[in-house]
Amino acid sequence: MYEILKKKELVPGIILMVVRAPRVAKNALPGQFVIVRTDEWAERIPLTICDYDSKEGTITIVFAAIGEGTYIMSKLNEGDCFHDFTGPLGRPSDLTLENVEDLKSKKILFVAGGVGTAPVYPQVKWLNEHGVKADVIIGFKNKDLVILEDELKEVSGNLYVTTDDGSYGRSGMVTKVIADLYEEGRKYDVCVAIGPMIMMKFVCKQTKELNLPTVVSLNPIMVDGTGMCGACRVTVGGEVKFACVDGPEFDGHLVDFDQAMQRQTLYRTVEGKKYLEAKEGKTHHGGCGNCQ
Amino acid sequence: MDVLKKIPVREQDPQKRAHNFEEVCYGYNKEEAMQEASRCINCQNAKCITGCPVAINIPGFINEVKNGDFKKAYDIISESSSLPAVCGRVCPQESQCEGKCIRGIKGEPISIGKLERFVADNAMENGFKPKKAAESNGKKVAVIGSGPAGLTCAGDLARLGYDVTIFEALHEPGGVLVYGIPEFRLPKTRVVAKEIENVKSLGVKIETNVVVGKAVKIDELLEDEGFSAVFIGSGAGLPKFMGIPGEQSNGVFSANEYLTRSNLMKAFDEESTTPIMRGKKVAVVGGGNVAMDAARTALRLGAEVHIVYRRSEEELPARVEEVHHAKEEGIIFDLLTNPVEILSDENGWVRAIRCIKMELGEPDESGRRRPVEVKGSEFDIEVDTVIMSLGTSPNPLISSTTVGLEVNGRKCIVASEDNGATSKEGVYAGGDAVTGAATVILAMGAGKNAAKGIHEYLSK
Fold first, then answer.
1. A116 shares contact with chain B (CB less than 8 Å)
2. Contacts of A68 in chain B (CB under 8 A)
3. Please, which contacts does A182-185 make with residues 24 or more away whose CB atoms are closer than 8 Å?
């Protein structure tokens, strides 16, 4: 069993957990993900690793309670255990495989949106530990949803916080910040963008025009996460790739985002009903139509 | 009783079973088993044994069934096989033991599979366990994967006194027996879990949720964790797709995904949180056993199901018994038909599969007549779900993270057929990871040979 050592609600609905999983922590690297299950009947939920401690044998995850599975997860407390916790899955971030001296000569920009801030954190932290300071843009809907600002401030070069409604930090979407930075005369050699699919799509559209190579981390629907089921297939540069073994990071300028977004809607109705059931009891059968 | 004919086996009514996930075949009772066993002529030169990849003493156990000593019959089988209740259900006996049966020359062969199943089920009911090793030899062996190859290899090594740990990537042991083969063919709790318990009762440890190649590498197992040898039985891998337009539409699944959702994740059960698409009209592309399993699962989830296969019935790679069961249940076979495109609606959901008629031409390299397109014969089948069952290609997780492990042109691990030895010292392999997608019993045979190979290597 995999014990929850620490639980913290970062902002309402977004939860951080530190979980004891020595086998996962031993070889984990930034960019990889885990799959968790709360009980015998639960689905397998893929989550990108937010932090890891190989010595302590722990993995940190951050998730938003937006579906039935994550809602049930959010009800677990410190001292409770995950039924299953497996990883590290997927390929580590390309940055971790590069020569550190080469990295030091590069100007790196991270762009994160919402919960996507969590998987950006270990990459920026890893770079910082290797003497590389990267600039980071984090964007949220409003000031009540800002997460991991202090943690990121510790490890990044310049940190730019922006909110869609301007209630905190800069005002506007992350793409506006990128535009502003370029207007201010900044230039980058590589960009890593992680967040909602729609954000990554627009960041990539923009960075393509700026001629800025961009890596994105995809989180499609998965079942096993080990290259067996093919549910997570995405089209990258006209080729079919499996996000779980070929990714989750890909060249953002080659990803077919429209198709990926369409595939994400596959179980939306079923999942939505199940989420309501988990939250409010078995009253949502889709029969009465009162909720339409 | 007609000695030329098998004692028929009782099955669940096709109309009824098309709507449930209960087991199709009920198996023999004691009387039926003893009667069927009495048909065996106990050949001196028993061909059936040579037809069995794990070389069970078939006439030996059948003779005990004939005498009514079912415990002794079980002991004989478990000398050679760790998974008799599984094999009795899913082995292609018609092309193996039963295919060689002398009785089969004139009349029907002995129903060896159903007898094996009877003996194994009877042992479970009565709590008979396989015999443990006399004493441990203290040597540690790691087995990667808890499917048929891994379980067999682990069971055999444990019986020889080794300290065996199986590493399983998924949350439940069993491999393809759990995620691939459906409940109605191979019950999970009643049969698979019990056989795995038997392997554990030999002293085998199973660690789930460990993805070897990611969480721990083969070299770390050998160097840091004290294992003297490793057996890789990691199974088949990534599902193949056709590469036709529209294949990424919503409602197109690999058979692996569809079956994993239903079998491993129990999505057919309301209690499960894993969703599965319950289509109204489903096309399953392919003609193997996996295609039959996917089709019959979709049927049970409430769909009208079409098998779309490019050759004719004669070339269907699935077992005759599976095709027969599928037809009985109402699966529609669209043979000599090949998909060319998947059509979707404005929201990206499947609405039809466009196919072309085929005819058989000259034999190809597989010896089967090559299907050739009939020009201008395209037509659409309206469906909302398409399941691709076209086989798999090997998973790179282990081969790409193990230095010195040779793979062939198809990316399968190269291993000796006799003893499972790979290009890396102390590392053995077998099953689908070596051969590409094949059968449960062939994987078990490979696991058995590798156990022998590992024993020889560690006895030096």
1. no
2. 273
3. A182/A210
pLDDT tens digits for B430-443? Answer: 999 999 888 888 99
In Å, how far from its chain's centre is CA A250? 14
As a whole number, mean pLDDT of residues B244-269 equals: 94
Question: What pLDDT score does A287 carry?
Answer: 57
Tell me which chain B residue has its CA closest to the CA of residue A2. B209
User: In sequence order, what are the residues at sequence separation of 6 or more whose Cβ sits closer than 8 angstroms to the Cβ of residue A150?
Assistant: none
DSSP A257-280: HHHHHHHHTTTHHHHHHHHHHHHH
Residue A66 in contact with partner chain B when CB distance is under 8 A: no
Question: What would the pLDDT profile of B172-186 be if each residue is shown by its tens digit?
Answer: 999 999 999 999 999
Chain A CB contacts of B170 below 8 Å: 224, 226
Chain B residue numbers with beta carbons less than 8 Å from the beta carbon of A42 are 273
pLDDT of residue B325: 95
Structure tokens at A228: 């067996």
| Measured distance CA(A41)–CA(A45) in Å, rounded | 12
CB B29 within 8 A of CB B55: no
* Cα distances (angstroms) measured from residue A65 to each of A12, A229, A279, B430: 9, 25, 11, 42
Measured distance CA(A150)–CA(A61) in Å, rounded: 17
Half-sphere exposure of B391 (CA within 13 A, CB side): 12
Contact call for A266 and B277, based on CB within 8 A: yes
| pLDDT score of B368 | 82
- pLDDT exceeds 70 at position A288: no
Q: Residue B293: which of B323, B314, B249 has the closest Cα?
A: B323
Distance CA A117, CA A111 (A): 8
Residues ≥6 apart with Cβ < 8 Å to A2: A19, A20, A21, A36, A81, A82, A84, A85
pTM score, whole prediction = 0.91
pLDDT for residue B367: 82
